[in-house]
Specification:
Radius of gyration: 17 Å
Structural class: alpha+beta
Number of strands: 10
Largest sheet: 6 strands, mixed
Order of helices and strands: EEEHHEEEHEHHEHHEE
Oligomer: single chain
Helix content: 25-40%
Length: about 240
Amino acid sequence: MIYYLWYLNVCWQTSLKLSSPVWRKRVAIVKGVLVIFLVLVLLASTGDCNAPDMARDVLSEINLARSRPEEYADFLKNFRRTFRGKLYRLQERTFVDTEEGVAAVDEAIAFLARQQPLEPLSWSPQLARAAAELVRESGRTGDTGHYGRSSGGPGKRIEKQGEWTGRVGEIIGYGPTGARLMVMQLIIDDGVPDRGHRKNIFSRDFRLGGVECGPHPRYRSMCVIDFASGFRAAR
């Protein structure tokens, strides 16, 4: 039997405070559905998204891609070899069906070849707590996207933790249970026309990042990554 997975990405970015009357108009939410079918039997298989180092590993992968993009392109070149048409092999009998196939991978490789190195992001415990609030809620409800039923949107969650400056953004990946595949998925950004997740990862505006990962009842796993130009913790 061959199993197929369904992965999902969503992203958000703003430079307006939650108190601004027009901030919602500047929110960009982009959903990229990477696959068409999810087999529930795989929910308990393929890795442990609750590993305590997963969040830190995701930020380390993002920083590797930011600071050494040409080197990171080699990981995508190796990943490209797992494709058969628009399917890529996750395990021996497990495939992920993508919208664009190797075309999106090739475009991401070309982007990384042109990309100038950026400073790595510093870990922000406040942004990590804002991300964790959504991961906990989504893990209970099975919802997707940036807006929790009780936790609210990214602006509300982040501003609970303190005052941000410049810009803030948030990206969410669903499905992969390993840090490298999670970050590669977000950089490739299959099915997302404006490559919004990739733009957040490689934004020069961001200096801080906070990550939380955990289980998700529909997609096996999820990681929320919050970014900010600057941040002052609440007292």
